[in-house]
Design a protein that fits this description.
The chain has six helices and five strands; from the N terminus they run E-H-E-H-E-H-E-H-E-H-H. With 164 residues, the protein is α/β, with parallel strands linked by helices. It has a single domain, classed as HUPs (Rossmann fold, 3-Layer(aba) Sandwich), CATH 3.40.50. The chain has a five-stranded parallel β-sheet with strand order 3-2-1-4-5, with helices on both faces. Strand 2, helix 2 and strand 3 form a beta-alpha-beta unit. The longest helix has 17 residues. The structure holds 4'-phosphopantetheine (PNS). The site of 4'-phosphopantetheine (PNS) has 9 residues, from strand 1 and helix 4.
C-alpha cells in the first residue's frame, strides 16, 4: 500500500491543485491532501473552509482523503505512513523554493521522497493568490477553480474582502 501526501495551503483550491491531486491518485494507492494550519500565515479561508472545499472538489476520486496538519510535514507523512510528498512545479520561479523544501525534508527524514509533477500547460500561471485577486476585483474565476465549488469560493471571497 503506497501512500503519498499532497501538501499545501489551498487558500483556496484551484484547478491546478486538482490536476496534481488527480494525477497523483493514479500513481499511488492512497493520496492524502494535507492542508497546512499555519497560525503565522493569514489565510482568507479558514482551515475548515479549505478542507471542506477540497472534500467537495475531490469527492469523485475514491483514493483521496483530506486532512489538516500543523508542525513538520515529514512528521505528518511518517504518522500517515506515507512514502512520498507530491508537489506540482509550475515554472522555474517555483523551483528554488521547492528545491529548498525538498532538500530540507530529505535531511529531516530520508524515508520520505519528494516527487515533482510538471503542471499542465493550461495551469502554468495559476495560483490561489491570482484567484483571490481576480475574484476580489469582480472578475470571472470560472476558468480557475473546480466548478462544484465556484459559487462557494466567490461568495467567501466577497465575504472575506468585506472583513479585511
Ligand atoms: O501551498 P504552499 O503554501 O506553498 O505550501 C507550503 C507547504 C505546506 C508545503 C510548506 O509550508 C510546509 O511543508 N510546511 C510545513 C512545515 C515544514 O515541514 N517545514 C520544513 C520543510 S521546509
Amino acid at each position: 500500500m503506497k501512500t503519498a501526501i499532497c501538501p499545501g495551503s489551498f487558500d483556496p483550491v484551484t484547478l491546478g491543485h486538482l490536476d496534481i491531486i488527480k494525477r497523483a491518485s493514479k500513481l499511488f494507492d492512497k493520496v492524502i491532501v494535507a492542508v497546512l494550519l499555519n497560525m503565522d500565515k493569514k489565510t482568507w479561508f479558514t482551515i475548515g473552509e479549505r478542507i471542506d472545499l477540497l472534500k467537495k472538489a475531490t469527492a469523485d476520486i475514491p483514493n483521496v482523503e483530506i486532512a489538516g496538519f500543523e508542525g513538520l510535514l515529514v512528521d505528518f507523512a511518517r504518522q500517515k505512513e506515507a512514502c512520498a510528498i507530491v508537489k506540482g512545479l509550475r515554472a522555474v520561479s517555483d523551483f528554488e523554493y521547492e528545491f529548498q523544501m525538498a532538500l530540507t525534508n530529505m535531511k529531516l527524514d530520508s524515508g520520505v521522497e519528494t516527487m515533482f509533477l510538471t503542471t499542465s500547460s493550461e495551469n502554468m500561471y495559476l495560483s490561489s493568490s491570482i484567484v483571490k485577486q481576480v475574484g476580489l476585483l469582480g472578475g470571472d474565476i470560472k476558468p480557475f477553480v473546480p466548478e462544484c465549488v465556484h459559487d462557494e469560493i466567490v461568495s467567501r471571497i466577497k465575504q472575506r474582502s468585506r472583513l479585511r
